[in-house]
Amino acid sequence: GQNIDQPTEMTATEGAIVQINCTYQTSGFNGLFWYQQHAGEAPTFLSYNVLDGLEEKGRFSSFLSRSKGYSYLLLKELQMKDSASYLCASSGGSYIPTFGRGTSLIVHP
Amino acid sequence: IAGITQAPTSQILAAGRRMTLRCTQDMRHNAMYWYRQDLGLGLRLIHYSNTAGTTGKGEVPDGYSVSRANTDDFPLTLASAVPSQTSVYFCASSARAGDEQFFGPGTRLTVL
Questions:
Q1: Cβ contact (<8 Å) for A45 and B101?
Q2: What are the two backbone dihedrals, phi and then psi, of residue B70, each rounded to the nearest 5 degrees?
Q3: Strands B107-111 and B87-94, sheet pairing
Q4: For tag attachment on chain B, is the N or C end more exposed, with fewer CB atoms within 10 Å?
Q5: Are B100 and A100 an interchain contact pair (Cβ–Cβ within 8 Å)?
Q6: B100–A42: do the CB atoms touch at under 8 Å?
Q7: DSSP code for B85
Q8: Closest chain B residue to the Cα of A29, Cα to Cα
């Protein structure tokens, strides 16, 4: 089975750094995805981690620790447009991802 | 078109009616998925298809059926709609099962 946990809501200031955590319990783990979803829109892919460590992609980075069942998404130099929901999803033995309930990030001036 | 499309954009439906939500992708992706998204519950998988001709049940399949007659199309049918099926429905595709998913714009369905 699979179980994904992430905080419901976070707030941060424009220009700051924010870390969104995700813990998972996944049988036959095959990878961890992060998606961004703006209100009223479809989710869009941000990152994928299958090996331990940090993957950096511009202002966004994603980290994975398979032994701890833990990932985080790091957003640097926050902008107002980063206000969105961030979805963590783990892929198990069936290669079908299970999504967490999402973390709503509010960036204020 | 380039990507994945869904129709209709929104629909209000009387309980008991039959409804088919359409999904088409032109990326030649093998895998396709249907999710529903409800406030506070996140994305929940309804049905999926790893390749044309095969389908599988997700987390919440009851009351829904799918078919995958070809690579491009993956329709979702509600045989007899109930109010609890009021939701936003997203179709998604990936090159293969386990790859990053590309989502359609969604269908907002209200069952009265």
A1: yes
A2: -145, 175
A3: antiparallel
A4: N
A5: no
A6: no
A7: G
A8: B98
